[in-house]
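Homework help board

Subject: predicted structure for assignment chain

Our instructor gave us this sequence and asked us to write out the predicted structure in token form, then describe one feature. I got the tokens but I'm not sure how to describe them. Can anyone check?
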Amino acid sequence: MGNLLYNRINRRELKERLRQSDEQRVTLSYYKYVQLPDPTAFRDELYLVYQKLGVLGRIYVASEGVNAQLSVPERNFEAFKTAMDGWDFFKNLRLNIAVEDDSKSFFALAIKVRDKIVADGIDDPAFNPSDTGTHLDAENWNRLSDDPDTVVVDMRNHYESEVGHFDNAITPDAATFREELPMVADLLADKKDKNILMYCTGGIRCEKASAYMKYRGFKNVFQLEGGIIEYTRQVQARGLKNKFAGKNFVFDERLGERISSDIIAHCHQCGQPADTHTNCANIYCHILFIQCDACRAQYKGCCSEKCCDFHHLPQEEQKERAKTETFSGSRFGKGVYKAFRKSAQALHAQE
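My token output:
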């Protein structure tokens, strides 16, 4: 049975299958904090159900719950919701449906067991993650964010907020959520009597972030119910003012969905207005960066001339040279984006 519970097909083949497919799919995300006594057993149970329904995506399971980003064949969407209701703790679960969807968000099903569904770096037993802030819908978020005694904080990573954020939001220069939690608490240490409004993509990070701020002594803590995704849905449905400018970064093949027409970021190569994230086409680099159409054409989807030249070498020569070559992505790892994001010429400095 073990062989049935993992994808065994080459990633490139799966991506090509998805590219060629005309199947309509629904991209969505959800999370649920719930105590799971045996995360591995639940992971296997979930995999079998999702595999039968043709679900693709990335799901993390831990003793504290489930965090999922996935896509479901449109023809199986009702069956998917019925299957989810088969678990008592999933009943009435909010599904965050993507704002923009090209049916190409995920190409494989990967369900992994983790220590936590959101890595927070917190090990103090006195911390109570269930003592969260007050949830706000879009209308109340807009109203409270206009209050001069309110501080709006983006609880996402810097590469997410760079392409889109709420008006007047504080956007911490953090590469990870666990880095950002104490950073925000320290940054706002003199504002403990202010209204603290926190938001993220779909709400999962703010569940912990708002609880952490209360743990650190903040009194008036609020969080955006359902995050940017649900906010956008409510704004559109109710005809409310949209206070989010730019794109909402998403962790799938799309890398972003447009919330407003504003382009607030810049190409990391030429500095022109742009907000399209891409990974360097050189697979031995694979750095995530922002690239405009002109630079994409000039560098063939690569982050530098060095990577562009390397990318066009025969595969066997790439494999051999990669043993000694150093690229932006391989040099800096996950923190590379932070190193480059503030300078339009920084990528070229690594050539």
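Reply (TA_rk): Your tokens look well-formed. For the description, you could write something like this. The two ends are 48 Å apart (CA to CA). That's the kind of observation they're looking for.
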